[in-house]
Amino acid sequence: MGEFMMKKWTKTIALSLAAIGSVVGLAACGKSTTSSKLTTVTVGGIGSDYQTWVHIAKTPQAKKLGLKLDVKEVTVGKQLNDETANGDIDVNAFQSYAFFLAYNKETKGKKIAALGTTYLEPVGIYSNKYKSIKSLPDKATIGISSNPANGARELLLLQKAGIIKLKKGFDTFGTTRDITSNPKHVQIKEINEDSAARFLDDFDAVLISNTIALEAKLNVLKDSIYYEKADDSTKDNINILATTAKQKNNKTYKKLVKLYRDPAIQKWIKKEFGGTKVEVKKPLNYLEK
């Protein structure tokens, strides 16, 4: 091979390698650009809320909003709020506005903030012994949550059902000491809400949150003898997304509220949970009034 041909051959190989390197480089840059468009947000959930956000994380709607959701399950509400307040979890999905208020009042550490409303999940009164609220007998034993915020919510439901009367101004921080009338002399006992469904054979009636009811294969709209309705009197029971107080105006986190309300996602939620998560589109100031 002549010197001229050798130089030409060497130059051709060099140009080819350079071209290949450029293609690889462009491919790598393309991958990096695509990844950089997605912002990772860690979402914490409990029970059906965890299940919901695992589904949402896989949807094209999440990617369209530029979100990559890392969904984690935590089984205890206070722990989930603690981790959110400390920044270990960016956003959590599990609690009512009343639970949120109680947490911020009771905690001595960092506070959390509401991002937006999601749904009302009715608490139901269930009974294995009686088929209607009116058939509950005198001195009936009724189980309510030992959690202060949820217990207060359940006392309000008992009042709505006509079982008891509570003092005027009863709110999220009320207790059984605020009962002013108990014509049937029902015995109200506090129980661990996480295992509330297990008490159905021991009590005449048990109040159960929908998250726990779903785990026990109970549909509040069909299986309870009485349940909460969505109106102004139950607005404190509307569920919210929450984050650390410093991030309450985070625009990326706010996208999760929009994402939750997407029609296709709502259709899945309605089917998956038998209509027991009633969508709420109210702004946060509706809860704050």
UniProtKB/TrEMBL annotation:
Keyword Ribosomal protein: no
Cell compartments where the protein resides: Membrane
Membrane topology: Lipid-anchor
Annotated GO CC locations: membrane
Name of the molecule in the record: NLPA lipoprotein
Record keywords, A-Z: Lipoprotein, Membrane, Palmitate, Signal
Signal peptide bounds: 1-27
Organism annotation: Lacticaseibacillus sharpeae JCM 1186 = DSM 20505
One Pfam family in the UniProt entry: Lipoprotein_9
Family in the record: Belongs to the NlpA lipoprotein family.
Domain of life: Bacteria
InterPro entries in the record: Lipoprotein_NlpA (IPR004872)
